Amino acid sequence: MTHPIRVRALAEAGDLERAWFARAVERIRALATDADETIRHFFSATEPLHIGRAPGRLDVMGGIADYSGALVLELPLACATFAVVQRQRAARCEVMTRRDDRWLPFSIPMRRLVGPDAEDSITLAAWFADGAQRSDRWAAYVAGVVHHCDEMLPGLRILIDSNVPIGAGVSSSAALEVATMVAVNAALGRSQSAADVALACQWVENHIAGAPCGLMDQMTSACGLSGQLLQLLCQPGRIEGHVRLPANLRVFGIDSGVRHAVSGDAYGRVRAAAFMGYRLIAERAGLAVQRDGERVRIHDLEWNGYLANIPPDEFARCFAPHLPDRMTGAEFLDHYGGITDTVTRVKRDAWYPVRQATAHPVYEHARVSRFAQLVNGPASATATAELGRLTAESHASYGACGLGCPETDRLVALVAEMGAAHGLYGARITGGGSGGTVAILGAADAEGSVRALAGRYAAEVGRPVNVFTASGPGAEQSGVLILDPRELDRPSPSPGG
Q1: What is d(CA 143, CA 210) in angstroms, rounded to the nearest whole number?
Q2: What is the rounded radius of gyration, in angstroms, for the C-alpha atoms of the chain?
Q3: H-helix or E-strand containing 365?
């Protein structure tokens, strides 16, 4: 069980907390001398500032199996998003963020987000998808948070500052949502547990931003502990513990440079295909099915609606031989009516990789469970070899689903080429696949090898790449900082930590 997010004034914060928020405080202090006059006067000099912090995450094992109920292992990263929230009298939600060395403003009337005449989620989502300017669509994650809070107040000013790379597969969207949610809650005087923050933020991403993500990103960003793997059973989001890797092991990440998006067609197609497979399995198992338009309800006391609960041997023996390799949406809908998933839909004119998309969470859950068992035990040479094999199998399964890409395959191949002799044991594509970041399991002292590998890859692709080597706290661990604008004239909190 998680606890309400702690809110503290800067004067009450310890040295470590001050270090976690030093970047945001410096950003706020720098506004007074910014070249853009608008941002110099963005915040009032009298109202308190509420600063939320939430990290990106490295998907060590589990990835796309989260929406099918699998166990996942996630590491909160040191890179983070800060949301600075201040109440204002003007009845608008005004947002500022910085990208490519320029400020991007966004403003929307509060009456569209909250109150008796507020737009519903479908209307708001449709506006961000089709009515808003393309350059404003990022703000769906922020406006969606305010809409979900549904608290009556005049207005808000929100400043976003982030060093979580966008499109790198390290969940910049979850970091944005969680940081905004905890800061808005603090500004409104609302108390909410970290797990409830994560659930609310997943709703925002699914229903306002239109990305059919599972829960693991938001749970890691909200509930993760620095230096530990969050062990999360996604049924729908039960934290089973925080795991420290053995002292001789460490995980790293290298961004392939190929932009990844959970809202992309490939991810949505594979997710829908997994739920199509579950529907076919329910039919073969004789489970009671109730049709409700494009959705179905399945009475499932055996697996509780999750593919991950089907034992691999039972799946291989009873179900896999009867699943089609591929299937059109039209063929499926005409015979089976719909799926149980509430955030994807089957398109009649699309092809779906039903067998592999269904098999992936069944076997991935088993792989992650074994991985967790191994990292909780002695880190012998035999164990590290098996851990590497598990990452390789996970990576291959992504590719078989259609969620691989040549660049991530190349990074995984380079890890295998360097191998244990250089302290590198295995690697896999992460998150939603189709690009993004590769997670690498290595020796505790393998950072030099990882950076050398990243340099070799960067030379091949002709561009610099991000390397992730450090962990940081989730929003529950770091809490929310309240800053009196008058404190900006005092010395900065010391960086570090």
Answers
A1: 13
A2: 23
A3: helix 354-375
CB 267 within 8 A of CB 66: no
Residue 9 neighbours by CB distance under 10 Å: 12
CA distance 330 to 392: 34
CATH topology match: 7-53+81-224+472-489 vs 251-262+388-468: no
Domain ranges for the chain: 7-53+81-224+472-489, 251-262+388-468, 265-361
The one-letter code for the residue type at 211 is: A
Give the whole-angstrom CA distance, residue 252 versus residue 439. 6
- Secondary structure of residue 243 in the 3-state scheme: strand
Distances (CA, A) of 456 to 425, 453, 461: 18, 5, 9
- Taking Cα atoms as reference points, which of 480, 391, 439 lies closest to residue 194? 480
Contact 276, 327 (CB under 8 A): yes
Residue with tokens 């699309």: 350
Beta bridge partners of 81: 54, 162
pLDDT truncated to tens, each residue of the chain (497 aa)?
678 899 999 888 899 989 999 999 999 999 999 998 889 989 999 999 999 999 999 999 999 999 999 999 999 999 999 999 999 999 999 999 988 888 999 999 999 999 999 999 999 999 999 877 788 889 999 999 999 987 777 899 999 999 999 989 999 999 999 999 999 999 999 999 999 999 999 999 999 998 888 899 999 999 999 999 999 999 989 999 999 999 999 999 999 999 876 656 899 999 999 999 999 999 999 999 998 877 899 999 999 999 999 999 999 999 999 999 999 999 999 999 999 999 899 999 999 999 999 999 999 999 999 999 999 888 789 999 999 999 999 999 999 999 999 999 999 999 999 999 999 999 999 999 989 999 999 999 999 999 999 999 999 999 999 999 999 999 999 999 999 988 776 554 444 33
Phi then psi dihedrals of residue 444, to 5 deg:
-60, -30
Q: Flag whether the pTM goes above 0.85.
A: yes
Is the sign of the CA dihedral 379, 384, 386, 389 positive or negative?
A: positive
Strands 71-88 and 49-61 turn out to be antiparallel
CATH code assigned to 7-53+81-224+472-489: 3.30.230.10
Looking at domain 251-262+388-468, its CATH superfamily turns out to be GHMP kinase, C-terminal domain (3.30.70.890)
Q: Is 101 exposed, middle or buried (0-12, 13-18, 19+ CB in 10 A)?
A: exposed
> Hey, which residues are catalytic here?
217
Both tokens assigned to 155: 């207005």
Give burial (CB, 10 Å; 0-12/13-18/19+) of 150: exposed
β-bridge pairing 155-162 and 92-99: parallel
Do the Cβ atoms of 156 and 85 come closer than 8 Å? yes
